[in-house]
Amino acid sequence: MASKHTSIEIARMTFKLEFGSYTPSGETNPNTGENILEFAPQFKKWAGLWNLTQTEQLTLAGAGIKDAVVFFVRHDKNITSDLTIRRGEKLYTIDNINYDDGLTADSFDLITCHHEVTKHG
Predict the structure, then answer these.
(1) Residue 104 CA: distances (Å) to CA of 1, 5, 15, 37
(2) What InterPro entries has UniProt attached to this entry (predicted)?
């Protein structure tokens, strides 16, 4: 079966995303006494940026997802919505993953996410 994301060009996969989660940094916030969390990468994937249509942008805005970004990566069952994404210095919360079937070499997943405000504990 062919990929359902047929308009994806491998040549547009020009950057790597880090996938990971927050872990205690060992430091304590002096104001709250809470443990400060930091991003801990678990694995990296080559990715590209998927361009949203105006209809897709309106649909996401209606669902309460502002400033949405959609990345595409090769199909990977290890990517789950409980992970956080880092691209450069920006962290992103995953809102939705449109998984491809993963049965062919041209299978891609679309990951809808939004820029995350840094958590300080």
Answers:
(1) 7, 12, 22, 38
(2) Phage_SPP1_head-tail_adaptor, SSP1_head-tail_sf
